[in-house]
Amino acid sequence: MLKVELIKVENSPEPTIEFYNGISRIPFTVSLGNRNTPQESIYTRNINGGNFIEFWFDKYSYDLYEIDLISIQNTAIVTTKISPLLKEESLYTCKIIPEKSLLEDSLPIEIVRDRNSICVNIINTKSDEINYFCIAKNIHIGVNADSYLTSLLVKDLTEENMHAIFGF
Known about the structure:
single chain, mainly beta, 1 helix, 14 strands
């Protein structure tokens, strides 16, 4: 699990979301801001069955700068209305605390979708309430009471985006 710190900021750069296509071959990539990929990164991943998600942090600032949903196992998809507990509309920077994080894990993943949102839940053994923090426009990180990253929420996607991610 990834222990993170969320720091309130005044503004955040526009995120870029790339969806599955014939070139990228993955459901989506979220890039936070228009920065070049840092020379050195802290690479983290959670792989469980056919579900695979990566988080990339800058090695020096510890800032989250990219999230890749590499693959989705169809049996992990749940279709329901997504209504997370969102914190106030403030913006936050997400930083990893490397010494308290497991960089490679195999926790179960649940993919929740509705008409225009996707929520990737990394399920740990605790059943804590998850609080969501906005890290960029329509991009939220969910953390439990111990500040472990447990969820990624991407909102306000188009029908075309949803079809690119799921194929239906």
